[in-house]
Write a structure and sequence with these properties.
The protein has one domain: 3-Layer(aba) Sandwich (Rossmann fold), CATH 3.40.50.1820. The longest helix has 23 residues. Helix 5 links the parallel strand 5 and strand 6. With 325 residues, the chain is an alpha/beta fold. It has a 9-stranded mixed beta sheet, with helices on both faces.
């Protein structure tokens, strides 16, 4: 009897410790995202951005997202909503020249070739320079007492992410090496997530990625090929899968979703893909990316233990592949 009383009292005296869960969201309501334009005067280039802010008014770690070819700052709101609810200021960057302007107003027969032409080296270079331009402006707005982002951004903790052409952009600014010997890496970036990554068209993957020191999380699918009208717009599957083996050990992760197509990382299937998307794919993407940000931007030891343990299997399906080194 005394033992039962003791157990009853201690069960109330000691609060239960909740296990780390990257899918749990606080009950606080989030404000609507804010739209701004970054004016890069040095290049005469205007960059639309969309910012999702967390509920707390204190400065939050910043996560940037770069859209794929033909996309916009309006893409992937499921990421913006979840990451911001988890305490991040999420900034979606739109890249003129390889954004939705490529296909809007074009006839259906012209769209595939227009998209192919926009996937150019020139646009790649422009995109890579867009990221430091946005970070520079965010720094100014954070210090501007008259701006809506005043005091809301912790730019000592920056994550970079993107899909497809945005993944290539992310690779470029977060550690990839180039044959020309010029570095495009922005030192403010502390960790990166690539959805549908690619090896470079020229040179070896080992040379491109063998010196990456930042934590990287790669995500792809077993059907992750971008085609419109019979034209391939991004890497084939062997290109997607060729990045991870070339990375050095040390906080490097790869997710391969069974049967996930290129559009699985967005809100809807792309032209030519199956119309039925697996709803668990977004759940996995959110869980693993959130744990990754928590581990490497917030320094959350529980998040890193979750990421490095068996917990990811709790959200993955049987034939999904998850590995780290």
């Amino acid at each position: 009897m005394k033992l039962l009383v003791f157990l009853f009292i201690t069960s109330f005296a000691t609060p239960a410790v909740l296990a780390y869960d990257p899918l749990t969201l606080p009950k606080a309501d989030l404000a609507a995202p804010l739209d701004f334009t970054v004016q890069d005067a040095t290049r005469n280039r205007a960059l639309p951005i969309r910012v999702y802010l967390p509920a707390a008014s204190k400065a939050a770690p910043v996560v940037l997202f770069s859209h794929g070819l033909g996309g916009s700052r309006e893409n992937n709101p499921y990421l913006g909503k979840h990451w911001s609810a988890r305490g991040y200021a999420v900034v979606f960057v739109q890249h003129p020249g390889s954004d939705e302007s490529v296909w809007k107003g074009q006839g259906p027969a012209r769209i595939p070739m227009a998209m192919k032409e926009a996937a150019s080296v020139q646009n790649f270079i422009l995109r890579a320079a867009d990221i430091p331009a946005v970070l520079d402006q965010l720094t100014r707005w954070h210090a501007d007492e008259a701006h809506a982002l005043r005091g809301r951004l912790d730019l000592t903790r920056v994550g970079m992410s993107g899909h497809s052409f945005g993944a290539v952009t992310t690779q470029a600014v977060s550690g990839q090496a180039f044959p020309i010997g010029r570095s495009l890496t922005d030192p403010r970036i502390k960790a990166a997530v690539m959805m549908s990554p690619s090896v470079p068209a020229a040179g070896s993957a080992e040379r491109a990625f063998g010196g990456v020191t930042l934590p990287w999380l790669l995500m792809t699918g077993t059907k992750d090929v971008a085609r419109i009208g019979g034209i391939t717009l991004g890497g084939e599957l062997d290109s997607r899968l060729g990045v991870y083996p070339a990375l050095p050990p040390g906080d490097k992760y790869e997710l391969v979703l069974k049967d996930a197509e290129h559009g699985a990382f967005g809100e809807r299937a792309l032209p030519g893909e199956g119309r039925q998307q697996n709803p668990n794919h977004h759940r996995v993407i959110l869980a693993l990316s959130t744990a990754f940000w928590d581990a490497f931007l917030k320094g959350d030891a529980e998040a890193k233990a979750w990421l490095n343990g068996e917990a990811p299997r709790s959200v993955l399906e049987k034939d999904d592949r998850w590995q780290r080194k």
